[in-house]
Design brief:
Blueprint (H helix, E strand, L loop, with lengths): L1 E4 L10 E4 L9 E10 L2 H8 L13 E9 L11 E5 L8 E5 L4 E2 L6 H21 L7 E4 L5 H12 L3 E6 L2 H9 L4 E4 L5 H8 L5 E6 L6 H4 L3 E9 L13 H5 L4 E3 L10 H16 L7 E5 L4 H10 L5 E4 L2
Parallel strand pairs: 8-9, 8-11, 9-10, 11-12, 12-13, 14-15
Antiparallel strand pairs: 1-2, 3-4, 3-6, 3-15, 4-5, 5-7
Helix pairs in contact: 2-3, 2-8
Length: 322
């Protein structure tokens, strides 16, 4: 099979397509012939060596396709079924071996591209808005990068929960896109100080929750955007890791909460995984959540896809199509 492999950490150029033997499923695993593969910023971090990975490796953790073969003692799925998954390594390939506990059957009316585009980021937005800080009617949320892969879904899910959403974006086009997704106000952070704007828009009170996948560039000001007992939910670091925090500031700023969650810890059981995935896929299938595909690339253009993602010019999910 063809697969993208990384043999050394570095820039997009380290993503190289190689011909390697197709894997075989072991006990509790299925071989999935991939039809679409999701590209995520965590793939970039792994390629750079910022997330743990043993060289050489096949990047990617999300995909959708058809079950081609089963390992011993598998009863959860059958060959020929259309499935999707997230948080299983090695998806930048024509085939992937996936633990069957990670596989989710796709709704009949959903195509592979939509399924691969929404699983990881959709379940991330779901746990952030339903579990880490359960958004409720009347809350005001600040969502950074409001048209990013997770950000755009956070905007939509928070609105489904009845919240007021303030987003941040970098360009007029992204501002318009965030508004079209349902954001009530959007701060163009390249021209405006988002801390000052949040204080103005909330009449000085602040927001109940900040959802921040940016990290270093936004973290310190986030603390000044929160209402008393507000939640700073730091779920990524696209601008780099945050500086060391003196936790005393959490008390000074209003008995604030700070958390750094991850999807693994919010899908600890198969029941929880199916609950989250069921909501996300159901919303997409019903048209309640909109997914924008920002670009599709063949496997041998994985480096180009990473460059597009890192440039922050894309306003939608990027996919690899084997």
């Amino acid at each position: 099979m063809k697969a993208v492999r990384v043999t050394q950490f570095g820039g997009p150029e380290v993503l190289r397509v190689e011909e390697i033997p197709a894997p075989r499923p072991g006990p509790g695993e299925a071989l999935v012939k991939l039809a679409a593969i999701g590209i995520n910023f965590m793939d970039v971090q792994q390629r750079l060596g910022r997330y743990p990975a043993m060289l050489p490796f096949i990047p990617g953790a999300e995909g959708a396709g058809v079950v081609e073969a089963l390992g011993p003692r598998v009863t959860e799925v059958e060959t020929g079924e259309r499935v999707t998954y997230a948080m299983a390594p090695g998806s930048y390939a024509e085939y992937a071996v996936v633990p069957v506990g990670k596989l989710v059957r796709m709704p009949d009316q959903m195509d592979f591209r939509m399924a691969a585009a929404v699983m990881l980021q959709g379940m991330t937005a779901h746990y952030l808005t339903h579990s880490t800080y359960p958004v409720k009617e009347g809350d005001t949320c600040l969502v950074h990068a409001a048209v990013g892969g997770v950000g755009g879904l956070l905007v939509q899910m928070a609105k489904l929960q009845g919240a007021r959403v303030i987003g941040t974006a970098s360009s007029p086009q992204k501002v318009d896109r965030a508004l079209s997704l349902g954001a009530d106000e959007v701060i163009r952070y390249s021209d405006q100080d988002f801390e000052d704007e949040v204080r103005r828009l909330t009449e000085g009170r602040g927001v109940e929750v900040v959802y921040d996948g940016v990290g270093k560039a936004t973290f310190e000001k986030d603390l000044y955007c929160l209402a008393p007992r507000g939640y700073l939910v730091l779920f990524g670091q696209s601008s780099g890791p945050v500086s060391t925090l003196d936790t005393q500031i959490l008390g000074v700023r209003g008995s604030l909460y700070l958390t750094r969650p991850s999807l693994d810890h919010y899908t600890l059981t198969r029941e929880e995984l199916l609950w989250r995935a069921g909501h996300v896929l159901g919303w997409v299938a019903a048209g309640q959540i909109r997914i924008n595909i920002g670009g599709e690339f063949p496997l041998d253009s994985a480096a180009e896809a990473h460059r597009r993602l890192e440039s922050r010019q894309s306003m939608g999910k990027l996919l690899l199509i084997p």
